[in-house]
Amino acid sequence: RKKKSxxxxxxxxxxxxVVKEILCTMREPIVAMNGxxxxxxxxxxxxxxxxxxxxSNNEIDIIGELSKIFLNKTNTYIILSIPVIISFFSVxxxxxxxxxxxxxxxWIEKSLPIKAQDIFIGKIIANGIIVSVLxxxxxxxxxxxxxxxxxxxxxxxxxxxxxxxxxxxxxxxIIDVLRPKLNWxxxxxxxxxxxxxxxxxxxxLVYILxxxxxxxxxxxxxxxSLCAYAxxxxxxxxxxxxxxxxxxxxxKKFYDFVV
Length: 259
What we know:
mainly alpha
């Protein structure tokens, strides 16, 4: 009974912590805009393209040409590249400055009768929800305008992009938990003047390039489509297990150090 009660308390804590993180992020415009700016640029670029197309009597038709490429359903390698490219818009300070923006308030979290690993999970879920909503919305919008892929492939792409976001988010949290910027005057400084954000971008770029390299290898080996989809999914799931496992260990060491 005690074990069941503790499990319920942990679940309730994570739920309340996730809500708290989301609300705190939305209340700080600087933090929020740094986290969602990449996705906001997508509809803006589409609107600019539409205006340019009207002014040039539709002579500028880059999207039309792209649509023709994606309408070729047999092009597995281009389809696999879609979630990788879209997930690059998730580069933000939401993850890589998550611990830093808490600053000296971290002692409050330390005083709670809860594991440091649960706080790490709470941050992953909270920031992941914000980014995921925008990621799915961006994919649906681009799929309507450009990709025009069938629903099963679209569902696969969304799942793969969400796993990639989990991985890049874990990378950001790990960087920030290993070298947090805890001394700042305001949250703007914690986000805008934080080298962890730059490091996160560089490491994420390497990770995206690894996915690109895997797609290139799949292309060269001319694998069957279903096999190619499975390999991409498995590759990123293995990354997820490694990153989350290491992140949980790193968060425990961090809070032991903060005490």
